[in-house]
Amino acid sequence: MEHSEILYDVADHIATITLNRPDRLNAFTNNMMREIISAFDITDADDDVRAVIVTGAGRGFCAGADLGGGGDTFAGGGSDEQTSIGIPRDGGGKVSLRIFDSKKPVIGAINGAAVGVGVTMTLPMDIRIASDQAKFGFVFARRGIVPEACSSWFLPRIVGISQAAEWCYSGRVFPAQEALDGGLVRSVHSGDELLAVARSIAADIAENAAPVSVALTRQMLWRMLGAEHPMVAHRVDSRGIKARGSSADAREGVESFLEKRPAAYSNSVSGELPDIFAGWEDPEFE
């Protein structure tokens, strides 16, 4: 798929997805939705990619939905695709679910305004860092709609229900320092440092961790947020240790440590990702 509203680049095992409508502060469109989903399909299939950074072109990250349609902007629902009962699927939700399913860790480098879907799309990203010029807003109630992009699931799990409620009920826009204090972002940096910090975090993962282990760990952490008991995690952990313990990567991880040298992991995400979640909710597993 050719991209017209995002940029896509890979260097040093790191893919960078840049939202690219700077004249509109990278406002979200259905076309941008499709291109973001396409980009994550590419990163999952490319074993050269070990981490993903998402950022914005120009002075904004994403100013939310493009409101060029005026008062009827939200009248048609979310996207052209419908559910089985005929309700249009929320486009931001489709992006969030695709990021949630990513096999590679995702870092949000939030360089400017992140409002509406511009902030909710970052919630399934694993690590969020922000420019000191960034601003955030869960502004839905001020636009007469409700939170989307699965944010009612993600946001309370990230920042807690009280903080999530305050931000969503008020719909106010708040600065990067408040996002840091509220646990929404990991750290705040000057604008000229932001991408360098994101790349440093991504490089540490790409250069030192086994890609298959990172892919499995990512899904273990996210999926277990909804588990009702630690026994569910025990089932998944047990399958994971069994599947990975006899792998070439496990041998290399131990031997490289003992030999005090960098590890060279050979297992690939595209071809050797075991299904450790089959039957993960099976009560018969004890």
In short:
The protein has 286 residues and is α/β, with parallel strands linked by helices. It contains ten helices and ten strands. Helix 1 (30-45) packs parallel to helix 2, helix 4 crosses helix 5 and helix 8 runs antiparallel to helix 9.
Category by helix and strand content: alpha/beta
Number of domains: 2
N-to-C SSE string, H for helix and E for strand: EEHEEHEEHEEHHEHEHHHH
Q: Mind telling me which CATH architecture of the largest domain this is?
A: Alpha-Beta Complex
**What are the low-pLDDT stretches, counting only 5+ consecutive residues below 50?**
none
Topology, please?
Elements lengths: L5 E6 L2 E6 L10 H16 L5 E6 L3 E3 L28 H10 L5 E5 L2 E3 L1 H4 L6 E5 L3 E3 L13 H9 L1 H10 L2 E3 H6 L5 E3 L4 H15 L2 H14 L5 H16 L2 H11 L28
Parallel strand pairs: 2-3, 3-5, 4-6, 5-7, 6-8, 7-10
Antiparallel strand pairs: 1-2, 8-9
Helix pairs in contact: 1-2, 4-5, 8-9
